[in-house]
Amino acid sequence: MGLRKRHPDVVFTPIMQSASMRRLDQVLHLVAPKDVAVTLVGESGTGKEILSRRVHELSPRKAGPFVPINCAAIPESLFESELFGHERGAFTGASELVKGKVEAAQGGTLFLDEVGEMPLAMQAKLLRFLENRRFMRVGGSTKLLADVRLIFATLRALDDEVRAGRFRADLFYRIQGITIRVPPLRDRRADIPLLLNHFVGHLAAKHGTAAPCFSRSARAALVSHVWPGNVRELRNVVETLCLLRAGKRVRIRDLPEEITRATSHTRGASMSSALSIDLGQSLECNIERIIEASLALEGGNRARAAERLGVSVRTIQRYLARGIGEGVDSPGDEPTDHPEERQTTH
Is residue 8 included in any domain, yes or no? Predict the structure, then answer.
């Protein structure tokens, strides 16, 4: 899927080489065409907004607007106006009619990020809106109808917030129907080499610098890092390296201290040649795990992973191609220490 000018930092086809993300994408393909609410649960930086845009792009509403709103960034006193808009004279300083995010998303998708941070008073108003898709602007007297699909995202499981009294139980049960958990980057290490190549190509072009190339040891350190900040942290690291090591080779000593410091402690465990196999899983699932682990050990290089496993590169490619779709390289492409150009942007 190509570049979209409306949001220059978005991947509309996320990188999904790992088995966990391929399974997640299969779920997105199933629910996207249905006009139902979706809730994405995952750590900060895992790409929940990107995945919500993925749902929008796969839905019949893709020609309509995609409107994001960060519930944690809006003061409680302004929340209702931000969401539903206000009439002229509704409050001091309201000199003109202003449409809210709900109206802006008409015919498209409204994405409520960090919905668990929404004030309790607004949760009640959101619940009423979800019941019949009708609302009034602040200071207004006419009920308006909104044709929008809602997608929610949260860092924490909302049932915990309900038990703590910070989230309404009735709203929770209203939006929990399609809940999708987004795995952290440390649980989908097979995606890291492709994300690395993608970010290098995009960020070097953005800053007008020559792209750096990565040594095998540097790639392995990046793959083995635990990434507490997830994909967002990886992007920030790559952006720094694109500026400080432009056109040069990135060695392990050029990586941020928190990565090099952790490498000596985690490499033996994270990059070990030992792998536990769950006999409760299917043979295909375990084969996928073995291939992903081998790719992680070899920094994403398929030829070396195939040599390690004693199989052909074609065998690796065949397994990677199953259910991946557009998020992978074409068969025969080999990851190298040089960044690859991609048609999408993050």
Answer: no
Cα dist. 56→68, 242, 292, 340 in Å?
12, 32, 29, 27
The answer to whether residue 337 is domain-embedded is no
Which range marks the domain in which residue 84 is found?
Answer: 19-181
Q: How many domains, the chain?
A: 2
Domain-located, residue 235: yes
Q: Do 66 and 150 belong together in one domain? A: yes
pTM: 0.74
User: Residue 39: what are its φ and ψ, rounded to 5°?
Assistant: -120, 125
Same domain flag for 170 and 253: no
Per residue of the chain (346 residues), give pLDDT as tens. 333 344 444 435 688 889 899 999 999 999 999 999 999 999 999 999 999 999 999 999 999 999 999 999 999 888 999 999 988 877 877 778 889 999 999 999 999 999 999 999 999 999 999 999 999 999 888 899 999 999 999 998 899 999 999 999 999 999 987 999 999 999 999 999 999 999 999 999 999 999 999 988 899 899 989 999 999 999 999 999 999 999 999 998 899 988 887 655 544 444 455 666 667 667 776 787 788 777 767 767 788 888 888 888 888 877 776 633 333 333 333 334 433 333 333 4
Pairing of strands 38-41, 178-181: parallel
Q: Which helix (H) or strand (E) holds 70?
A: strand 66-70
